[in-house]
Amino acid sequence: MASLKEKDTDSVVFYGGDTTVRKDLPDIVRFARDYGYRRIKIVTNGRAFSEIGFLQEIMEKGCSLFEIMLWGSNPPLHDHLTQTAGSFWETIRGLENLAGFPDEKFVCVRIPLCIKNYTDLENIVATALNFNIQRIILSIHDHALSFQSLLPHIKNAINISIFNRIWIQTEGIPFCIMQGMEQHIGEISHGVNTVYDRTFRHHDYCSKCLYNELCPGPEVKYLEKFGAKEFSPVLANKFIQDIKALYE
Amino acid sequence: MNKKRVALISFNWANHFSLALGYLKAYALRDRFIQENAEIEIIDFDTEVLNVQQVVYYLSQIKPDIIGFSCYCWNIGKVLDTARIIKTVYPHVKIILGGPEAGPIGVKYLRENNFLDVVIRGEGEMTFAALLKYYLGKGRIEEIGSLSYRTESQILETPESPPIEDLSDIPSPYLEGILTPRDKVTYIETYRGCMFKCHYCFEGKNIPRLRFFPDERVQKEIELVLINPEIRSLHFIDTVFNHKKERLQKIVEMISGANRFGAELRTVEIIAEFVDQETVDLFRKANVRSVETGPQTVNKDTLKIVNRYFKEDKFRNGVKLLEEKGIEVTTDLIIGLPGDNFFKFLKSARTLIDMKPSTVVFSILHVLPGTVLYDKAEEFGLKFDDKAPHLVLGAPDFPYEDIDKAVIMAYSLDKEYNIRPFAG
């Protein structure tokens, strides 16, 4: 953290496994705060925040930004995917506690998408919207899920979220799939090719696509399973130069 | 003869008071005839706390003969509700509107609201005093410049009056005892006009040059405000506080010489590009704690279209110098400017966030009456709500849905970037 701070950063994110299992997390947060980090974010399943005393301690030490993973809109689905009985209600209580906490905070709900939960996506988004959150991220978790099946649910999820005035974006979906919804592509927002440490591959069509240099393409395993039939090159976009400028 | 009762009313936010109404009263009371024949009361209503019924009740008790409202895009709704009820209950009361919301489109307001009598266009002091004299029985309304008014059969406009040439003609509302400085909400104005002519802003439009209040008077105002130990912070409302270094030096000397209790200057408007180390030192000497600056967009085409000055490198350097010395910088971006689109707006947001100012403020474009964007909206391809607060509804490359999404995204960015951690 000290070496990062020397690089003039003012934000730090703690993630990996689940950070809240560390007993010394409050001390680490305080350490970051003392180093002068203004924005300290924790990425977590949110279960530990069902204990309001722990949440209070974390916030008092200086953490104000939270990213909570929500896998399902109901206990059987969420608990099945987390492989932990009771985890749904703990996460929901964590979100409730965050929503009820009076101090300034930023709460983002990340919905990892897989073959087992994508049909529940609209319900998961609706569930997340109950907790006074500021952003939703839909991230691809499973290369066994076809974009063709997922796309209608993505469109619905975006409409539900925007209707409720909460910003929503995607991660890990090739840009050609997201045509007409480019505003919601997380990679474009951040000006990065990919936020994942995975192997992506451009297929033949990609070389003709306007997004070729920007989009990582689909995952290698995805192409192996589904082939390239869903993908088609984007040949025209009025705003392509402005989108490219976000990567400069 | 009984004096006529004149109520000058402003609906304000957060305990603020209206400096503009202070000027109107101070200028009007220079006139002996007005002094002898009118009792002018300034009433600042807190728009968050009071509803229209409470305001009407208050007015029913003081029974004014003439009411002047100070109108902005964010209070015009309450002004019109109050004026309509007052005129219905007390038809003899003359209702006058002025201020940036009503002035430029006075005829429209008169046409749409038959309970209004007069709208004052532009700078109000001289016109209001002349109108008051007319209502007190002296002069002819058609000879007063910069008015839109209703006769029995029609709505008329008189020709534009030139702005007040010499600002020393306007007595200081503070020095005259008309306004009492209060902590956090005291404004000092050292000049009028703006060196820039941005098309989304009405400041300085149609006024060819800056006009300054006399140094001696500014100094006296500063001393009056800063002699009060309860004033912990105050504002300068000059359009560009650092527009010229020589003048900045002079004002800073006045402030530092008078600032015996360490009052802070908050949210002064500056041009970040003009900031160098010397400016930062001057700001610190004046105890400036926070400044606000543009650039509204960083997109070159948009900047050109809206006639906004922006030099990215100098701006970035200015922000850096200020933040390094502990002066909080608030940078502003506008959503929906002509020339911008969703992705250009995102680029602006990312560029500013990269500069690490204390705060980035995102606002949606208000196509305000009196601005070039309002007057030439069609030419710019702008769609906007003609009802105040005149929110933009579309620009050539920024359709309504994208503006709406940009607003929602900006809200999320705002909460994330501008977070103030728990202070424990």
Task: Identify the notable features of this structure and list them briefly.
heterodimer, A: 248 residues, alpha/beta, pyruvate-formate lyase- activating enzyme, 2 domains, six-stranded parallel sheet, globular, B: 424 residues, Rossmann fold, TIM Barrel, seven-stranded mixed sheet
Q: Mind explaining what this structure looks like?
A:
The complex is a heterodimer of chains A (248) and B (424). Chain A is an alpha/beta fold and 248 residues long. Chain A is 36% helix and 14% strand. Chain A is built from ten helices and six strands. Chain A has a six-stranded parallel beta sheet with strand order 1-2-3-4-5-6, with helices on one face. In chain A, strand 2, helix 3 and strand 3 form a beta-alpha-beta unit. The model of chain A has no long low-confidence stretch (mean pLDDT 93). Chain B is α/β, with parallel strands linked by helices and 424 residues long. Chain B folds into two domains: 154 residues, Rossmann fold, CATH 3.40.50.280; 237 residues, Alpha-Beta Barrel (TIM Barrel), CATH 3.20.20. In chain B, 36% of the residues lie in helices and 18% in strands. Chain B contains 15 helices and 18 strands. In chain B, the strands form five sheets. Chain B has a seven-stranded mixed beta sheet, with helices on both faces. In chain B, strands 13-14-15-16 form a four-stranded parallel beta sheet. The N and C termini of chain B lie far apart (64 Å). Classes of the chains: A alpha/beta (248), B alpha/beta (424).
